[in-house]
TrEMBL record, chain A:
Keywords: Cell membrane, Membrane, Transmembrane, Transmembrane helix, Transport. GO terms for cellular component: plasma membrane. It comes from Lawsonibacter hominis. One of its GO terms (biological process) is transmembrane transport. Its main location: membrane. This is ABC transporter permease. PANTHER family: INNER MEMBRANE ABC TRANSPORTER PERMEASE PROTEIN YDCU-RELATED, INNER MEMBRANE ABC TRANSPORTER PERMEASE PROTEIN YDCU-RELATED-RELATED. It is found in: Cell membrane. Pfam families: BPD_transp_1. The chain crosses the membrane at residues 69-90, 102-125, 145-170, 195-216, 250-275. It is a multi-pass membrane protein. Belongs to the binding-protein-dependent transport system permease family. CysTW subfamily. SUPFAM superfamilies: MetI-like.
From TrEMBL, chain B:
InterPro entries: AAA+_ATPase, ABC_SmlMolc_Importer, ABC_transporter-like_ATP-bd, ABC_transporter-like_CS, Mo/tungstate-bd_C_term_dom, P-loop_NTPase, Transp-assoc_OB_typ2. Keywords: ATP-binding, Nucleotide-binding, Transport. GO terms for molecular function: ABC-type quaternary ammonium compound transporting activity; ATP binding; ATP hydrolysis activity. Residues 4-234 form the ABC transporter domain. This is ABC-type quaternary amine transporter. Coiled coil: none annotated. GO terms for cellular component: ATP-binding cassette (ABC) transporter complex. PROSITE patterns: ABC_TRANSPORTER_1, ABC_TRANSPORTER_2.
Length: 283, 343
């Protein structure tokens, strides 16, 4: 090994060490803990697949996982629909003078704690609250509310994750030259074709990272569901949380985490392949 | 193929008037160069033809048909952008095929026309390449092929060669001219490079301050400019201000014989003498004497700095002729041609 190679390794040591310590090691502990029974977290504990068998027997995992995926999927889809025009407007229609201010306005929710965001949304949505009172003007009963339904959870998640999607799409759209859009237009491309043939393929890297940044945490979310989801609001995240905080069954909680992680890995790979396939169909 | 007519086009950005009533015509198959310093409005004028810029007033007519109100995508105009604006996510073939796909050209015809366009720009065999694999000159050719493949009425070129190395640029000047002649398309070319405009165009339109101030063949624009700005902008000139009297310009103790000019005696004038129009002769044989102060080697020619009384003049002479002239020696000057404008 030459000297420069050695120094490269030394330079990489802190980051590699961090990764090993904070990602690989906890994952190993997670897998290990998923193989123990109850809370007997000792090195000489008897290992078995018992937790996994119980989970599959109980039959709660797949319905809740499915519900979480559906929730995360619809939140992601709504984010994409809302964020595309916003990001396009920011990157291509707004003058440079106002652009930074508008981006800051989009980032502002990040400065507030997540719990505060959820509670303020609940205040807005509650019976006789501002939203319901406004709807009351149009003949809806203002003393009822969509709060404590799955739709309320959807709205809160959408509100929380929309800025991430906007920023991801915005940054990749800024890289599209105006002249590329003009070139397409001069050659005869109308609005729809310009979007499909130029904007979409050239912003697909941003779309991909946006989807992953929104979908993965939304699928694992549980605070929103616990606070605003009502009695039928349980998601896979809530189920995992219950095993740690209520029934104190660490082994089963960890097994649930491992299963959840595997499902998300598979889904991320599928999303990646689909986006690349769609955007790159003309390559 | 079509002719182009622009009638009294005006455009302002806020209080700044960029186009102050510009009119021009281009016959079918003609090659026009819009030449001017940056900020003269030449690109804005070009963009009003494609529709990227909407003019405040005036008309753009293609074959007598007013397209001023048509949307960009309906104008059937080909544009080569300064930075090419190719689609990096498509290969060479798909870039060139794109306008034909928009027009739903049948597959066999599409293949044949893309092949033909690539052949015209001498890129046969490049169809499957990715844009990122091409050099600047090759990207330029793809952009050109893409702009002509759908047979637009007018071809617009917005400083297409300015990003290229000198040698490739000179090659591409010849290529663009050849392709333009071959397909006979009416072309408007924007450039700030006077050499490019003079060598490529049928007609040079010199723009200054949002107006066309000169519209003539390259030779006429160069040899007989109609304004002091044109005389100064095209080619390097000695500029002298003084009084015109009997075929001479008296400026700062210097009496330069400039020949009979169409200005009245005693008028204040600006005289412009192109550097190559100042001939150096042995002492006693010319009209006024000067001393060589410096020689600047430019390759095929030499720029000589001359002290003539209080004045500094520049002369451009072929390198071979400059060899015997040494710094510090005395020479005589003769003015071989001058442009004189009343002030």
């Amino acid at each position: 090994m030459t000297k420069s190679k050695l120094s490269t390794w030394l330079l990489m040591l802190p980051s590699t060490g961090m990764l090993a310590l904070l990602v690989v090691a906890p994952l190993a502990v997670l897998v290990f803990a998923s193989l123990i029974q109850g809370n007997n977290l000792a090195l000489d504990a008897a290992l078995s697949l018992g937790n996994y068998a119980t989970i599959l027997e109980k039959g709660l995992f797949f319905p809740l996982m499915g519900k979480s995926l559906a929730m995360a999927g619809s939140v992601t889809a709504a984010c994409i629909l809302l964020a595309y025009p916003t990001a396009y407007g920011l990157a291509k229609c707004v003058g440079e003078k106002h652009r930074n201010l508008l981006v800051v306005l989009i980032i502002i929710p990040f400065f507030t704690s997540q719990l505060l965001l959820i509670y303020s949304m609940m205040v807005l949505l509650q019976a006789n609250g501002p939203v319901m009172s406004l709807l009351g003007l149009f003949g809806r009963n203002a003393s009822t509310s969509i709060l404590y339904t799955n739709f309320a959870v959807f709205l809160i998640l959408l509100y929380e994750f929309l800025p991430y999607m906007v920023l991801c799409l915005y940054s990749s759209m800024c890289k599209i030259e105006d002249n590329q859009l003009y070139a397409a237009q001069v050659m005869g491309a109308g609005k729809a074709r310009r979007f499909l043939d130029v904007i979409f393929p050239l912003s697909s890297p941003g779309l991909l990272s946006g989807i992953i940044i929104v979908f993965v945490p939304a699928a694992g979310s549980f605070v929103e569901a616990n606070l605003a989801g009502g009695t039928n609001g349980m998601l896979i995240g809530s189920y995992i949380d219950t095993n740690f905080s209520v029934s104190l069954n660490i082994g089963r909680g960890c097994a649930l985490c491992v299963l959840f992680l595997l499902v998300l890995c598979v889904i991320t790979l599928i999303i990646n392949a689909v986006i690349r396939g769609v955007a790159g169909r003309r390559l | 193929m079509a002719d182009l007519k622009i009638v009294d086009v005006r455009k302002s950005y806020g209080k700044k008037e960029v186009l102050k009533g510009v009119s021009l015509t281009a016959g079918t198959g003609e090659f026009l160069a819009l030449l001017g310093p940056s900020g003269c409005g030449k690109t804005t004028l070009l963009n009003t033809i494609s529709g990227i810029v909407r003019q405040d007033a005036g008309q753009v007519l293609v074959d007598g048909r007013d397209i001023s109100r048509s949307p960009i995508e309906k104008r059937n105009i080909g544009v080569v952008f300064q930075n090419y604006a190719l689609f990096a996510h498509m290969n060479v073939f798909e870039n060139v095929a794109y306008p034909l796909r928009l027009k739903k050209v049948p597959k066999a015809e599409l293949q044949q026309r893309v092949g033909q366009a690539l052949e015209t720009v001498r890129l046969d065999g490049y169809a499957p390449r990715r844009i990122a694999q091409l050099s600047g000159g090759e990207q330029q050719r793809v952009a050109l092929a893409r702009a002509i493949v759908y047979r637009p009425d007018i071809l617009l070129l917005d400083e297409p060669l300015s990003a290229l190395d000198r040698k490739i640029r000179e090659q591409m000047q010849i290529e663009v001219r050849r392709i333009q002649r071959e397909i006979g398309i009416t072309t408007v070319f924007v450039t700030h490079d006077q050499g490019e405009a003079l060598s490529m165009a049928d007609r040079v339109l010199l723009m200054h301050g949002g107006q066309i101030i000169e519209d003539n063949t390259p030779a006429e624009v160069y040899l007989h400019p109609k304004s002091a700005f044109a005389a100064d902008f095209i080619g390097a000139s000695n500029v002298l201000e003084g009084r015109y009297e009997h075929g001479r310009v008296n400026a700062g103790g210097l009496a330069l014989p400039v020949g009979e000019q169409a200005v009245s005696d005693g008028a204040r004038v600006r005289a412009l003498i192109k550097e190559e129009n100042l001939a150096l002769l042995p002492p006693g044989q010319g009209d006024l004497s000067a001393r060589i102060q410096d020689k600047l080697f430019l390759g095929q020619s030499i720029r000589i700095t001359l002290r003539c009384g209080e004045r500094i003049l520049f002369a451009l002479i072929p390198a071979r002729e400059a060899e015997p002239l040494t710094v510090g020696s005395d020479v005589d000057l003769r003015v071989m041609g001058a442009s004189v404008f009343a002030l």
